[in-house]
Amino acid sequence: MNKNFTTFVMCLCIFVSISNVIASETFSPLISGSNSGKVNQWKVEANKRIEKYRKADIVISIKDSDGQLLQGIDVQIKMIKHAFPFGTVVNSKNYLASTKFASIYRHNIKNFGFNAVTQTIFWNDFWDEDFKAQQKKANEFYKSEGFQVRGHTTIYPRWSNTPKEIKALSKVDAPKAISDHIKETASRMNGWYSDWDLVNEMYGHMDWIDSMGGMDSLAQWHKISKEKSPDTQIYYNHNGMICSTKNSRFRKNIFNMMKTMKEQNLIDGIGIEGHLNEDSPSPEVMYTYLDWYSELDLPIRITEFDLGGEDRQEHGRKFGEYLTTFFSHPNIKGITLWGFTDGFMWQKQKGLITPKGELLPAGEVYKNLVLNEWWTNVTGTTDSDGKLKIRGFLGDYEVTATIKGKKVKKKFSLSKSGVSSSLVIP
């Protein structure tokens, strides 16, 4: 085993001395905290960040066929799709089925404006050829519907999640079988995903990693994944990174592990699971955690967001606070809900709708934020310069100009650099 990697593994298995880092501001967010007492001040600051990082300038010019700018023209600027990935994990079997439940399931995915989905590719399922065919069919459907798709997860280094066929192999044969699995998965799914969790929740399961070849094997898995699926970004996904103000040692060790993985070019991004509950940090403290992980200079996705809680109204309120906090952070590149229907989610987290499709408080909050507050639909008239200028959320748009009952339409995409577009009225 490479000596550097061996040292790294040993450091992960014990609490290494990091007093020099603790003394710096790097770990300031690890101190427990609570709301400052300034009512809604966090929301004021979050909205400022959203305005700065999630929106850009739109300038629409209306001209006649001679190129003359026209003032007083009615213009509608209508958003079609967010650039920011608002997603959910999907059950491909339910999505593809011809049942009434599947129809409702697909309807609600669109009804909430999800533009991204996470497709699960757990190894225990992947042995089944029918499952592979189903995943391929589902992925093609997601792409045709315009979803961004990410994959979760290729390797889950926990004995309970290890296929029995691998457990039965010797320590000599098992690493090769794992490499072969990654080679097949990456080859089969090349072009399917924007990113995937190559290894999930490795920290805390180093005995599994060690028995399969240690960190040298991780480097080999990364190499195989990049060779067979070169356009797929590799994320390291983990739980407990933002869920509590306790366990600061755990967060420090996770941070140091990801830092080393980055230095070894083994990851392209960070997946923060986000399984939250009533005792999770306040929005202010949560934001400082996100700031801290951003010091690694890697993109971050909230990959498995859900929230526990018994009081529905309180659940909806806190759900909105966390969603706003995530969306307001400039380094968060996507938010994925870990399910959205009560009774069909991990543990007892509360969803956005009931099994019958009835909207719950968290669902009302989600739709109001994503499809109302964070959505651009503006009607106005061109000024004396023949222009309509607004700020809009990044995404895809359709602009319609109306003059003497005649409508002219044009589509455009708004990026952070802004957009300036012209419509010519014949």
From TrEMBL:
Task: Extract the SMART domains matched here.
Answer: Glyco_10
Could you tell me which InterPro entries the record lists for this protein? Answer: GH, GH10, GH10_dom
Q: Which sequence ranges form a coiled-coil region, renumbered to this chain?
A: none
Put simply, this protein is called Endo-1,4-beta-xylanase
Q: Per UniProt, which keywords does this protein have?
A: Carbohydrate metabolism, Hydrolase, Polysaccharide degradation, Signal
Signal sequence range: 1-23
Q: Where is the GH10 domain?
A: 74-369
Q: Which PROSITE patterns does the entry link to?
A: GH10_2 (PS51760)
